[in-house]
Amino acid sequence: MRPLSVVSSLASLLFVAGSLSTLPGRAEANIASTFPQKPIRMVVTFPAGGGTDTLARLIGTDMSKSLGQPVVVDNRPGASGNIGAEFVAKSPADGYTLLIVNSSFAINPSIFKRLQFNPKSDFSAVITFASVPSVIAVPSHSNIRTFNDLLAAGKSASPPSYASCGNGTPQHLAGELLKVSAKIEMLHVPYKGCAPAIADVLGNQADVSVNTLTNTMPYLKSNKLRALAVTSKARSPFLPDVPSVSELGVPGYDVEQWFGILAPAHTPPEIVQKLNTEIAKAIAKPEIKASLTQLGFASTTSTPAEFQKLVTTDIDRWQKFATKINLLVD
Fold first, then answer.
1. Least confident piece of the model among 17-31, 72-86, 114-128
2. Distance (Å, rounded) from C-alpha 91 to C-alpha 94?
3. pLDDT confidence band for 46 (50 / 70 / 90)
4. Which of 226, 232, 219 is nearest to 171 (CA)?
5. What is the SS3 assignment for the chain?
6. With bands split at pLDDT 50, 70 and 90, how would you rate the model's confidence at 1?
7. What are the residues facing 66 on neighbouring strands?
8. Which residues contact 158 (CB under 8 A, 6 or more apart)?
9. Which of 28, 220, 237, 304 is spaced 20 to 30 Å from 197 by Cα?
10. How far apart are alpha carbons 269 and 125 in whole angstroms?
11. Can the peptide bond before residue 36 be classed as cis, meaning omega within 30 degrees of 0?
């Protein structure tokens, strides 16, 4: 009888062990199937009313419907987005606090040396969903009429000034990359936002505007500004007649502003994937695509891994460039 008892006990232990081994997978599946059970906070690192804020509210509204829980936009501007990013980096990794960013997030490590978070390791990439190039433009009455005129002016004894949306913004880096790549000089004039930057170009306080297509388009349509080039690798479908910088003889030039969503590091992969799926579904809807188009954004989607690669690649790219030109804001 004792051998049978031992066999029986061993069988029971193996059954229990086998049952326990399946629990993590089942628990993870249950986490994803029941998520979310409370409102989701989407942190925007810029003030209300800007492009990133508009995108957050557009996507958040659709996510609220599909997930059955409110998505609350929380504006936490300051320090070029670092305040909001730090808040999310230190939030619980449960999927209920998200960060919507643009490519300034990947530039900040190059110019701010005292970040209180690690942009590569303190976040889980969820998805990238939109992009927009910048436009290099001048007032309609400017003597700089073409991109070649700009290059000539940049090599003259009196190089032009260019207005950007602020230190460390993609527009700032687009201007500096143009200077290096085309071997010209331009004086950078940073502003606290894209709107005042364009206003001062229109008011002749700066010679050249490097600003997002979204902000520039209305002034192109009203003939107050004239586009010289777009900063993306290829022409924008919104400005098919305006060539890209690389097309105009500056090979390899490419600065396109992307937008995406991050979660705190170690957020369960099943929750990250569920968020990715829901946002991708939203972006695919005709009404969302139409809204993005009206705002001047190209829609795009990615896997979490693809977005993580984009973030990491851009961080490395801009750190290398900032070191090369000794660029430092903080």
1. 17-31
2. 9
3. confident
4. 232
5. CHHHHHHHHHHHHHHHHHHHHCHHHHHHHHHHHHCCCCCEEEEECCCCCCHHHHHHHHHHHHHHHHHCCCEEEEECCCHHHHHHHHHHHCCCCCCCEEEEEECHHHHHHHHCCCCCCCCCCCEEEEEEEEEEEEEEEEECCCCCCCHHHHHHHHCCCCCCEEEECCCCCHHHHHHHHHHHHHCCCCEEEECCCHHHHHHHHHCCCCCEEEEEHHHHHHHHHCCCEEEEEECCCCCCCCCCCCCECHHHCCCCCCCEEEEEEEEECCCCHHHHHHHHHHHHHHHHCHHHHHHHHHHCCEECCCCHHHHHHHHHHHHHHHHHHHHHHCCCCC
6. very low
7. none
8. none
9. 237
10. 10
11. yes
Q: Check residue 266 and give left, alpha or beta (phi > 0: left; psi -120 to 50: alpha).
A: left
Rounded Cα distance between 120 and 125, Å, is 10
Query: Is residue 54 packed enough to be buried (19+ CB in 10 Å), middle (13-18) or exposed (0-12)?
Result: middle
Residue keyed to tokens 């829901």 = 278
Closest CA to 217 of 153, 137, 110: 137
Domains in the chain with CATH codes: 36-131+256-325 (3.40.190.150), 134-248 (3.40.190.10)
The CA–CA distances, whole Å, from 167 to 8, 84, 94, 172, 269 equal 72, 18, 33, 6, 35
For the record, the structure tokens of 12 come out as 């029971």
Alpha-carbon gap, residue 287 to 202, rounded angstroms: 34
Q: Which token pair is 148?
A: 């070649």
Q: How far is CA 35 from each of CA 224, 226, 293, 321, rounded to the nearest angstrom?
A: 49, 49, 31, 41
Q: Is the pLDDT of residue 181 over 50?
A: yes
Q: How many residues does the chain have?
A: 330
